[in-house]
Amino acid sequence: MLDKTLKAFVWMVVLLLSAPVFSGSSSDGEPVDVTEMIMHHIKDAHEWHVLTYTDDNDGKQHVSIHLPIILLDDGLKVFSSEKLYHSGEVVEVTVHGKKDHYYANKELGYAVFHETIYKLNQEGALDFDEEGHATNAKPYDFSITKNVFALFFSSILLIVLMTAVVKSYKNDGMHPPRGLARFVEPVVVFIRDDIAKANIGEAKYRKYMPYLLSAFFFIWINNLLGLIPIFPGGANLTGNISFTFALAACTMLITVFSGNKHYWKHIFATPGVPWLLLPIMIPVELVGIFAKPFALMVRLFANITAGHIIILALTGIIFTFGSAAWSGLSIPMSLFIGVLELLVAFLQAFIFTMLSALFIGEAVAEEH
Amino acid sequence: MDLITPDLGLVFWTGLNFIILMFILTKFIWKPIMSAVNKREDNIQEALDMAKNTKAEMEKLQTQNANLLKEARIERDEMIKEAKATSDNMINSAKGKAKEEADKIVENARTSIEAEKNAAVSELKNQVATVALEIAEKILREDLSSDEKQKQLAETFAKDINLN
């Protein structure tokens, strides 16, 4: 029974991890820019590129999901990303001695260059400075990008899965957990006992459980979805600095607003420090308030992005050398890293939650 | 560089999405799960405590039983001892009484025997006296014909009487 499940699981992982190979293939003779491919994958995008294939006329066909673009620029402007990428024009430019292109739609007056939306100038074009950056004005971009879509999708998926879990407890909650709950309950109990109780303390942990549980499961499910190479997974959401910034900011706000008088006393009048040193200590402690969540933000971002880069780079070996024989090396290696990433997905969610609990615990601790 | 620059739009959506998600999950998921898990754990703890208490009570009862048994045994021994003493006493007293009674009977018998004997002796004496008188009368009638004989006889009688 277990063997069967294990086998099915291993095959599933193999199939999933070999998918980037298929989706990354290109027509003969055309070199693949692996760096470009990797950077394109780990960054956010205004459309979701699913796959590219060659049709009967040797023309490249792209299958993409057009996501809505929402701009705040003298009022709210909402339109499909198709109008930029496909209805508009592709403008070839040479910036910084390198050939590049951007998509412009003169009717709308916007252009997208390296996934950033700019306003077009009077002539309906973008201006570039010497470093190759566009200098046009940027509207506030609240688009439903690839990552925002992944954000919504994972939230809905999490709610659906958890609704299935909570059914197990609807009757009386006395019998042992059944189905998905058998898998989720140990994790919940682990977060309660080994993260919340251990770091915040028996007396005060209850108030912070919803945040810790939500953060853990949300990060975990997004880490896992990020490992699935095809739509609707594969968005590098937890490896995006904006995402980790928002979550780390939540931890910081909770920590600061939970801080009791001992916490603030420790910052503004550190016990055992001569008062002459306080002008130095106070700024250091104040920086510490921001440094802790900053570390949270960078840790999650760097770990997940690094994982994605390694898997893609290993897969990219095949295209860099232009020989399918390299798949003998590259697939086992990316499989190995892929399985490792499954562990990292859990580990990083755990570390984020653990450190959040630790920081909150420091803020609410009573003086010894 | 834009890889490590937070993007306003995504930060906004992440924050909004996460806060809404957290409220939905807290209300519909975490609260029921946590309360069910806590309730179950409390229940298990209660059951364990109860089992422990019951065991302690059982042990207490067992010791109590053993003590009762011991006491009962001691009491039984005492009762047996007492009964034995009582019966011994009874036997002894009965023996004493019986002896007394027997002594009394013996005494009575002796007294009556004595009385009988005395009566018999006196009867005999009377009889003897009567017979002697008759004999004496007869002898006297026969022998007292002469003075000598009378004298002799008188002497003999006197001797006889003294012997008696």
UniProtKB/TrEMBL annotation, chain A:
Principal location class: membrane
Any one GO cellular component localisation term in the record: plasma membrane
SUPFAM superfamilies found in the cross-reference section: F1F0 ATP synthase subunit A
CDD domains assigned: ATP-synt_Fo_a_6
GO molecular function terms noted in the UniProt entry: hydrolase activity; proton-transporting ATP synthase activity, rotational mechanism
Signal sequence, renumbered to the chain: 1-23
Topology of this chain in the membrane: Multi-pass membrane protein
Domain of life: Bacteria
Key word DNA damage present: no
Transmembrane segments: 148-166, 211-231, 237-260, 272-291, 297-321, 333-360
Key word Cell membrane present: yes
InterPro entries: ATP_synth_F0_asu, ATP_synth_F0_asu_bact/mt, F0_ATP_A_sf
Subcellular location: Cell membrane; Membrane
Keywords: ATP synthesis, Cell membrane, CF(0), Hydrogen ion transport, Hydrolase, Ion transport, Membrane, Signal, Transmembrane, Transmembrane helix, Transport
Biological role: Key component of the proton channel; it plays a direct role in the translocation of protons across the membrane.
Family designation: Belongs to the ATPase A chain family.
Protein name: ATP synthase subunit a
UniProtKB/TrEMBL annotation, chain B:
GO cellular component terms attached to this protein's record: endomembrane system; plasma membrane; proton-transporting ATP synthase complex
Ranges in coiled-coil conformation: 37-119
Protein topology in the membrane: Single-pass membrane protein
Transmembrane feature ranges: 12-30
InterPro entries, per the entry: ATP_synth_B-like_membr_sf (IPR028987), ATP_synth_b/b'su_bac/chlpt (IPR002146), ATP_synth_F0_bsu_bac (IPR005864), ATP_synthase_B_chain (IPR050059)
Keyword vocabulary terms for this entry: ATP synthesis, Cell membrane, CF(0), Coiled coil, Hydrogen ion transport, Ion transport, Membrane, Transmembrane, Transmembrane helix, Transport
Localization annotation: Cell membrane; Endomembrane system
GO function terms (MF aspect): proton-transporting ATP synthase activity, rotational mechanism; proton-transporting ATPase activity, rotational mechanism
Self-association and partners: F-type ATPases have 2 components, F(1) - the catalytic core - and F(0) - the membrane proton channel. F(1) has five subunits: alpha(3), beta(3), gamma(1), delta(1), epsilon(1). F(0) has four main subunits: a(1), b(2) and c(10-14). The alpha and beta chains form an alternating ring which encloses part of the gamma chain. F(1) is attached to F(0) by a central stalk formed by the gamma and epsilon chains, while a peripheral stalk is formed by the delta and b chains.
PANTHER family on file: ATP SYNTHASE SUBUNIT B (PTHR33445:SF1), ATP SYNTHASE SUBUNIT B', CHLOROPLASTIC (PTHR33445)
UniProt record similarity statement: Belongs to the ATPase B chain family.
Protein name: ATP synthase subunit b
Organism: Brumimicrobium aurantiacum
Name of the encoding gene: atpF
